[in-house]
Write a structure and sequence with these properties.
single chain; elongated; 70 residues; 1 helix
């Protein structure tokens, strides 16, 4: 018999992580707290606004470049 015993592997409970703060949470939840859920909503609105503003800038830029081409 070996003088070194094999250690038992640690048991990790199934979980996922909060999108905002990376805290381990149960599989049934999406966020660890109301604060993280609110932060996610705020970031989502900001991403949507930035995307729409970027899409609106392209036609405006195209029109301006077409008008000042001459």
């Amino acid at each position: 018999m070996s003088k070194y015993q094999k250690e038992a592997a640690p048991v990790i409970v199934k979980h996922k992580h909060c999108v905002i703060c990376s805290t381990p949470i149960p599989m049934s939840k999406d966020f660890c707290s109301e604060a993280c859920e609110g932060e996610n909503r705020r970031l989502s609105r900001r991403r949507k606004f930035t995307f729409i503003a970027t899409l609106a800038m392209f036609p405006v830029l195209l029109i301006l470049l077409t008008l000042f081409r001459r």
